[in-house]
Write a structure and sequence with these properties.
The complex is a heterodimer of chains A (about 210) and B (about 220). Chain A has helices at about 5-10, 15-35, 40-45, 50-55, 60-80, 90-105, 110-120, 125-140, 150-170, 180-195, 195-205. Chain A is elongated and about 55 Å long. With about 210 residues, chain A is an all-alpha fold. The N and C termini of chain A lie far apart (about 60 Å). Chain A has a domain at about 60-205. In chain B, helix 4 runs antiparallel to helix 5, helix 8 (about 160-180) runs antiparallel to helix 9 (about 190-200) and helix 9 (about 190-200) packs antiparallel against helix 10 (about 205-215). Chain B is mostly helical and about 220 residues long. The longest helix of chain B is centred in the middle third of the chain and has 24 residues, at about 65-90. Chain B has ten helices and no strands. The chains are: A mainly alpha (about 210), B mainly alpha (about 220). The interface of A and B includes residues 120, 171 and 188 of A.
């Protein structure tokens, strides 16, 4: 095989690292000074790259921001899926997925701020996209609860509600204790599928 | 005052303290109006000065910068909403009804003043890191009000943050409606939003009772 073809079409490891460094840099900067005040200069100096390198990866600040947010939402979905156990019932799996997501958010506070606080100020339509993605991940949570179909409006509320709780926890300075929210978010996530009584029961189990 | 809202020029008997206060108020009102119309980011100090009919020097005597003025305006707006709604909430009666009546008051206020509502909920999110802290402190005040309901809540023990759950649900719903430009129709959702507040505290049956009372009213 021609070595040049490979070089041209495949991102090298160094390139991927640089891209990740850029994403990390925008996350840190937005957490510190908000998206609106973050400049390309902030990003490149934090990432230790040149402006030209930035523009090789992203056409502008907004596309870089979107990539950081989307990457983190994908990670959240992945850890949620990985927490699934065939041996557990559905509510148990919801608890496990939420605990895993909260653990990831605790470990990545800057990205968490990006998703739950900054994104809505940058472009509210982003929230609708993540909501759709994350709600899909919960589908099946209420199976076995009288086969009740979730109320679509209620699942929308649940996402916003969880977002408000996580944002508030971070803003009152307890971002390193996101696990404290586990019972609350289990309740919120199950409520549209199971109604309040079963959601409450599961929240108690999550304590 | 003249028709343009400016104070009469030259010698007028108004004490300086009062002039300054009224200039401050005009600047705050102008900030709300301009930020609602153009968005916080697009609003310049010059826009606010023009709308208020106040000079640049006076502005910088009263405020550090645009953000300082905006946050001061937001604080006044929030306090005004909060005091008005909590006055209704503090009326004696069963807790569920107090929540229902306060919700009606809140939604009416939001619907009748779209500029203030947009500034209160949407534009604040664009006003820098200080606005993040402001969100947390205002949310905490709302949750503290709702904690009156813990006394009659069978679930409060299992859900220590039940007030945050309740407040978060309605905040998320109101935010979305305002964002979609539907603030004027908020009062239609009074029964449903009241249910959202009550259900984590009181359970399905009690929450539905108050929802029905409001729907019938």
């Amino acid at each position: 095989m021609n070595k040049n073809v490979l070089d041209q079409n495949m991102p090298t490891v160094a390139t991927l690292f640089k891209r990740q460094r850029i994403l990390d840099a925008i996350a840190v900067s937005c957490a510190e000074k908000t998206y609106a005040s973050t400049t390309i200069s902030d990003i490149v100096s934090r990432a230790g790259i040149s402006r030209a390198t930035f523009y090789k990866h992203f056409p502008n600040k907004r596309s870089c921001f979107d990539a950081a947010v989307e990457g983190f939402v994908a990670e959240l979905r992945a850890v949620g899926r990985a927490a699934h156990s065939d041996a557990a019932d559905n509510p148990e799996n919801v608890r496990r997925a939420i605990a895993a997501a909260l653990a990831l958010m605790t470990a990545a506070p800057d990205y968490t701020r990006l998703v739950v606080i900054e994104a809505i100020a940058v472009d509210p339509s982003l929230i609708d996209r993540f909501r759709t993605l994350l709600i899909a991940a919960l589908r099946g949570a209420g199976d076995g609860a009288d086969g009740a179909l979730p109320n679509k409006a209620a699942t929308r509320t649940a996402y916003g509600q969880a977002q408000v709780l996580v944002a508030n926890q971070i803003l009152v300075g307890r971002g390193d204790e996101l696990q404290e929210l586990l019972p609350d978010i289990v309740y919120i996530a199950l409520f549209p599928f199971t109604g309040p009584e079963e959601a409450l029961k599961q929240a108690q189990l999550a304590r | 005052m003249t028709a343009s809202g400016k104070l009469p020029r030259g010698r007028h008997g108004i004490p300086r303290e009062l002039v300054v206060r009224s200039q401050r108020e005009r600047l705050l009102a102008a900030m709300i109006e301009t930020a609602a119309a153009k968005g916080y980011e697009e609003t310049s100090v010059a826009d606010v000065l023009e709308a208020a009919g106040v000079g640049r020097e006076t502005f910088y005597e009263l405020f550090e910068d645009k953000q300082d003025c905006f946050l001061a305006a937001h604080r006044i707006l929030f306090d005004d909403f909060f005091d008005g709604v909590s006055a209704v909430y503090e009326q004696p009666g069963p807790w569920a009804q107090r929540v229902g009546n306060a919700m009606a008051e809140l939604l009416d206020r939001l619907a009748s003043d779209p500029d203030s509502t947009k500034v209160l909920l949407i534009e604040i999110g664009k006003a820098g890191p200080a606005s993040r802290e402001l969100f947390a402190s205002t949310f905490t005040r709302v949750a503290a009000l709702l904690n009156d309901g813990r006394g009659e809540s069978p679930s409060a023990e299992a859900l220590p943050n039940v007030a945050n759950i309740a407040g978060g649900a309605v905040f998320a719903r109101i935010y979305e409606e305002v964002l979609l430009g539907r603030a004027a129709e908020l009062p239609r959702h009074c029964a449903e939003f009241t249910y959202e507040i009550l259900v984590p505290f009181l359970g399905e049956e009690e929450a539905r009772k108050e929802e029905s009372r409001l729907s019938a009213g």
